[in-house]
């Protein structure tokens, strides 16, 4: 479910479960983590492109295979993905080819360079299920975008478009994200790579030094929300395609 | 094997599940003020948990909006000094000092005076983010009497401890975290879950080794460095001699997970 192509100095990772819009089930997360680790320890690789097969980039956790305990699940199978991307000595590029939802927004935003097609929609989805955003979605969004709209998205949920995100400076738009990502990757490979890695480390210190603490807290609070009545209502109404009736307690 | 017992006490509740003993202070209408009966029951409960071989670790938390607001002031005022000196709360502090299994204090709310002293007599402290901590004794014309000037000072340093003890003010869980007075702060609703997760992680470790490690760390507080190092080395030799260590080291070399008895 994860395809890896190693090219000259860079890798392309493709989330490859197109019939499920690349929804991340447990097996896929485990595979992704091990591929990321493999690539991160490969000295020949300098840039990594993350993209999706088919019409979606990735729509988040697979709601048909949700874990019992969200806190444990986030800590064991989602955060390692974010960490491998964020704290590796490679430059990660997200080539966002289609709809991106839930946890995958966090994964996309954890990369160094984000390139999306103009028609891409980002769907936060969590609040619709009676949860709050996880996998760093609120964190990366509010670290990178300082406006009321981003704040609302983090708190109340909802959707945003690639066009909006471009205006905020969150990503750049391309008619062919993968192609643009590859030409950028080639530049990185032939450039002063150590300078780029140093730059990433500086950015991590400026922006993300509290990431671990945030994730600890986020998983804890999501762990609680996953045990509420509202979540049960959220998930069952979602599967039955009905309007949820939340109690708010 | 999943073991679950529920004992009935008046001022506390205890429960054992999956190698974890959970004690809940249960005088919520009195903010879990520690009275003589609670002292007696806590000692009894700790005895039971110490003797229960299924239990590897203990969590202490409070029911209601306080962990514990401290000693029962009314009772303290009405008890003759001679009786307080003869007995008082000492059995609890002695019991905690000699208790061999690790104890996690899970602070669910107000943790003041004797409540904070109780937390500091434990081994790990997790706080709900709305918890408030302090030593407000000075507001009653008294001072802390069970670690509130000693364990607190050794933990947060003289100047912060002095401010807390002289002003009697309560600090937030986040401030306490910054002081190094609590291990971590968690969302209110997740407190017990997080305490249990941490406890579970520790219960995967070998039982005898856990006790030797706890004792060695605590000796850092009770001794000068050279004595502490001597005790540590002795416990290290003891640990080396256990079956748990043989299995643990063998598993490490064979690149597999150790199989320790639960």
Give a verbal description of the structure.
The complex is a heterodimer of chains A (249) and B (262). In chain A, 47% of the residues lie in helices and 16% in strands. Chain A is an alpha/beta fold. Chain A has a single domain, classed as 2-enoyl-CoA Hydratase, Chain A, domain 1. A six-stranded mixed β-sheet of chain A has the order 1-2-3-5-7-10, with helices on both faces. A four-stranded mixed β-sheet of chain A has the order 4-6-8-9. Chain A is globular and about 55 Å long. The relative contact order of chain A is 0.14. The mean pLDDT of chain B is 95. Chain B has helices at 36-51, 73-78, 81-86, 90-98, 114-120, 151-156, 158-167, 173-179, 191-203, 207-222, 225-240, 243-253; strands at residues 4-8, 12-17, 20-25, 57-62, 66-68, 103-107, 110-112, 124-128, 132-134, 170-172, 184-186. Chain B is of the alpha/beta class. Chain B starts with a strand and ends in a 9-residue tail after the last helix. Chain B has a seven-stranded mixed β-sheet, with helices on both faces. Chain B has a four-stranded mixed β-sheet with strand order 5-7-9-10. In chain B, strand 1 and strand 2 (12-17) form a beta hairpin. Chain B has two domains: 4-203, 2-enoyl-CoA Hydratase, Chain A, domain 1, CATH 3.90.226; 207-253, Lyase 2-enoyl-coa Hydratase, Chain  A, domain 2 (Orthogonal Bundle).
């Amino acid at each position: 479910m994860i395809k890896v192509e190693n090219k000259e100095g860079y890798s392309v990772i493709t989330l490859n479960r197109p019939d499920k819009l690349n929804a991340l089930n447990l097996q896929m997360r485990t595979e992704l983590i091990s591929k990321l680790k493999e690539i991160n320890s490969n000295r020949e690789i300098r840039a990594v492109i993350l993209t999706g097969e088919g019409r979606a980039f990735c729509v988040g956790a697979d709601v048909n295979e949700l874990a019992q305990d969200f806190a444990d699940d986030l800590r064991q199978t989602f955060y390692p993905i974010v960490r491998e991307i964020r704290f590796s000595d490679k430059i990660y590029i997200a080539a966002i080819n289609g709809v991106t939802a839930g946890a995958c927004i966090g994964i996309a935003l954890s990369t160094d360079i984000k390139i999306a097609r103009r028609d891409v929609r980002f769907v936060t989805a969590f609040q619709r299920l009676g949860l709050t955003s996880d996998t760093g979605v609120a964190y990366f969004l509010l670290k990178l975008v300082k406006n009321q709209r981003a704040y609302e998205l983090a708190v109340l949920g909802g959707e945003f478009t690639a066009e909006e995100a471009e205006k905020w400076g969150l990503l750049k738009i391309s008619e062919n994200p993968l192609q643009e990502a590859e030409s950028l990757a080639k530049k990185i490979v032939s450039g002063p790579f150590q300078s780029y890695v140093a730059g990433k480390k500086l950015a991590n210190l400026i922006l993300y030094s509290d990431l671990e603490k945030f994730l600890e807290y986020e998983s804890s609070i999501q762990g609680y929300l996953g045990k509420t009545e509202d979540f049960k209502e959220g998930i069952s109404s979602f599967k039955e395609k009905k309007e949820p009736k939340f109690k708010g307690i | 094997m999943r073991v679950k017992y529920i004992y009935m006490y008046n001022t506390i509740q205890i429960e054992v599940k999956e190698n974890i003993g959970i004690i809940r202070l249960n005088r919520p209408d009195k903010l879990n003020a520690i009275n003589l009966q609670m002292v007696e029951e806590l000692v009894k409960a700790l005895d039971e948990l110490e003797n229960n071989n299924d239990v590897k670790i203990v969590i202490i938390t409070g029911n209601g909006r306080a962990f514990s607001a401290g000693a029962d002031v009314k009772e303290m005022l009405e008890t003759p000094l001679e009786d307080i000196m003869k007995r008082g709360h000492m059995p609890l502090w002695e019991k905690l000092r000699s208790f061999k299994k690790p104890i996690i204090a899970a602070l669910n709310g107000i943790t003041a005076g004797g409540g904070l002293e109780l937390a500091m007599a434990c081994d790990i402290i997790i706080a709900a983010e709305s918890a408030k901590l302090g030593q407000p004794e000075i507001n009653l014309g008294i001072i802390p009497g069970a670690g509130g000037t000693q364990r607190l000072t050794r933990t947060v340093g003289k100047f912060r401890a002095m401010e807390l003890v002289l002003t009697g003010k309560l600090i937030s869980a986040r401030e306490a975290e910054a002081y190094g007075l609590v291990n971590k702060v968690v969302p209110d609703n997740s407190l017990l879950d997080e305490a249990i997760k941490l406890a579970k992680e520790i219960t995967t470790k070998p039982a005898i080794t856990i006790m030797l490690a706890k004792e060695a760390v605590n000796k850092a507080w009770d001794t000068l460095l050279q004595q502490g190092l001597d005790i540590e080395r002795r416990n290290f030799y003891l640990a080396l001699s256990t079956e748990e260590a043989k299995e643990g080291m063998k598993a490490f070399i064979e690149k597999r997970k150790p199989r320790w008895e639960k």
